[in-house]
Amino acid sequence: MLNVLFICLVSCFIIYIGKRVWKKGNTDFIAGYGKIFTPKDEKQLAKGIGLIIMLFGFESIIFPILSLFFEGIGFYYGLLVVLNFFAIFGLMIKDQVQGKV
């Protein structure tokens, strides 16, 4: 039970980080920023990445609690984590293709 509480606290910190990314509107934490990857619409990209980080935090709160009641739910959590990564990559590709309107 203490493990679940610790995970929930870490998840709240992840949600806080996502909220800061959303509000700050800055994506300079991306690897290769300014050299390989230069966002065209940084505010919109930061909003999307912040939202995905916050959703990951909510998932990280919900799944450990659900795992107390259901068996084998870790697979679905892992699947959502992979989908979060693909969503971030999709946002980066969308930013490069669309650009600023």
Overall mean confidence score, pLDDT: 86
* DSSP summary, beta strand count: 0
**Strand residues, percent:** under 5%
What coarse outline follows from CA principal-axis ratios? elongated
Biggest pleated sheet: none
What number of domains? 1
Structural class: mainly alpha
What's the number of helices?
3
Protein name: Putative membrane protein
Transmembrane segments: 49-69, 75-93
Keywords: Membrane, Transmembrane, Transmembrane helix
Organism: Priestia megaterium (strain DSM 319 / IMG 1521)
Outline of this structure?
With 101 residues, the chain is mainly α.
Secondary-structure map with pairings?
Blueprint: H1 2-24, H2 42-67, H3 74-98
Helix pairs in contact: 1-2, 2-3
Which structural traits does this protein have?
101 residues; mainly alpha; 3 helices; elongated; transmembrane; membrane; Putative membrane protein; transmembrane helix
